[in-house]
Amino acid sequence: MIVLDRMLVGGTKFVLGKIASALDAERNDDSRMREELLAAQMRLELGEIGEAEFRALEADLLARLREIRERQMGEAPRPGEMKVTGVEATIHGEE
Asked: Of 2, 28, 36, 53, which residue has the fewest beta carbons closer than 10 angstroms?
């Protein structure tokens, strides 16, 4: 009974880990946002949406793209939060 419980828990943990990885990859994928932006531009050119609606869509999509890029790059440390942990120096030249 204990072995079966451990297998069940292990299997569930594995599946949930895979789902979390897939969701994280999708959350950090900017290609969907770019496609949506291109589609909005096409709808504007075809007259399906107005300039104001396009600007609102564009602002939202660009903000989401910026968030994705910041997550991918990592947040830069604020001044004063940086710390030097080691230094390596090489000196070349005449003595």
From this structure: 2
Rounded CA-CA distance 95/93 in Å is 7
Residue 8: pLDDT band with limits 50, 70, 90? confident
Residue bearing tokens 């990885």? 21
Concatenated DSSP letters of the chain: -HHHHHHHHHHHHHHHHHHHHHHHHHHT--HHHHHHHHHHHHHHHTTSS-HHHHHHHHHHHHHHHHHHHHHHH-PPPPTT------------S--
Residue type, 19: I
Better pLDDT: 93 or 77: 93
Distance separating alpha carbons of residues 1 and 87, to the nearest angstrom: 57
Tell me what the pLDDT averaged over the chain comes to: 82
